[in-house]
Amino acid sequence: MSVLQIDTGDIYFTGMEHDAFTGDICITCSAPVVVDDTLIGVVGIDFVLDDLEESIKNSESGSGFLCIVNDKGQVVFVPDNNGVFTVEEAGTAEDLRNSDNTVLAELVTQALEGQTDVKIVNIDGKEYYMTGSTMKSVGWALISVVEKTAIDAPTKQMLDEYDSINEKSTARYKDGMEYSKYVTIGMIAMVVIVGILGALAVANKIVRPVEKMTKRMLTISGTDQAFEMEDDYRTGDEVEVLAQSLAELSAKTRQYIANITEITREKERIGTELELARKIQADMLPNIFPPFPERKELDIYASMTPAKEVGGDFYDFFLIDDDHLGLVMADVSGKGVPAALFMMMSKILINNFAMQGNSPAKTLELTNSVVCQNNVEDMFVSVWLGVLEISTGMITAANAGHEYPVIKKADGEFELFKDKHGLVVGCLEGSKYKEYQMQLERGGTLFLYTDGVPEATDAQEELYGTDRLLEAMNRNLDADAKGLLTNIKSDVDTFVGEAEAFDDLTMLAITLK
Asked: Which domain holds residue 388?
């Protein structure tokens, strides 16, 4: 049995060129495809620099931003008006590795070689938290920059609150101390009768530690929050107990402040990375409509609304040749970042095998074989894959455990097309899939979706269901593809109300004019 082996360690950056379709400047990366130790071809991907620049410019927030440094240590992408870095021509741009700012130079050098720790960098009198990581495929580095004042704000707020509490405690303590002094004086007066030496010994044991403790309490403010036990406080009585309690409170307060600072820094970093991941995932799906302006007979529109920052649903459509259009609707198990990574891999595999001319069933079999080989986490994806013959409207499709498609004839209403389902992709190695055909008439519409539509849930935990879906679709039979998806999304949102989104909401509609 032949096994397709793609060695992800042998990816080559082949340079920059103009995209043949858009004219934009791209980065091209490629990798060999090896079957039974024989090189059979090369796969590649073009990454449009304009898209990368747009993502970097949109990364700017109130407290930080992202920038990209090339392998020469020069800033090539950074948001406008960021106040720290500027993009200059290659001949005049500064190599940050040779910057007079040694901390910045060291961080950039480390980022181009691997991943850095978070460092504090002082630029023009302002302090910034910076961290970086190499972009291995091109030898560049991604630098994250956040103003230190934005991170330290929670700590300052905690310190101010602590000062306020400390002032109130000190005032109460001073009142108590005054009372203690009067009591002590009275005790001395009584002890004098017994003996002056005994009275002085008692006063020395109680008053002196209390006064020293009071002076130390009055000096605590700002970042100096440490109150520690000293030998003078170890009196063996209530004074020692009070001093020990203050020392423990001081230690816990300092630890709490340190934890808040670290949590805030980590939350800011994770938020920045998730936002960038969301934008990258959205850019992986076809998002320019109409996608084929020259093909007037096709009206296509699709949308994906993730339940979290990133999701596991995906759709795809692509011209295999002039008369055949591939259509994909899929749903990865799970949510969040793991599902998004699994989604990207599955999308690429299905697209590659379909573009090689394989039938829908064969494409699903090949994809399932590759996924099962490295599926340690036991994830899976449900897929509906069809190939539309544009000239005749005939659709050849295979269903790997996905939702039923919905189809409308030219003069009819939307109805479920209850096709035969196979196993989901990634569940069992060696799975086989059956194909079937369905006719899309001129003027008819095919609608594909994920389970996030019928399983949308309101506050009473009632499901939206396919009956409501068909009812919403049949209210306006003359709507175009975009209008159809807009009507469905509005109806689902109205049904769900204030309830939290349960699943990703992904839809695709195509009308053959």
From this structure: 285-512
